[in-house]
Amino acid sequence: MKDEVLEFEKSKAHIVVEIIEYVDDSVVIKTIIKKSTGNITAVSIDSGEKLEEKTSPFDTFIQIIDGKAEIIIDGDSKLLETGESIIIPAHSRHSINANNRFKMISTIIKSGYDEVS
């Protein structure tokens, strides 16, 4: 797995799907914003690869920006296509499979959990 932190120019338009590339037999992660309150990453996953099952103490917003992905949340499989998104609830077991190669944006917000009901 390759993880790279990018310095995106602020106040400038970006086409994220063109910024992250596919690499054969690999998962590529580029961090767009990383703050103590959360982060946004762009991810490309080649066909046959996956992100292993884990849990997070925070909700995670996933948006597919190219291709199709299988998102498994607490054993329930969801197939998402370009333009679709899903929120993975905090503390749920989840994994992401690339039956086909795809790109996604992952957004985690770490603050405000006690502010909103």
Automatic annotation (TrEMBL):
Domain of life of the source: Bacteria
Domain Cupin type-2 intervals: 45-98
Pfam families: Cupin_2
PANTHER family linked: SLR8022 PROTEIN
The protein's name: Cupin
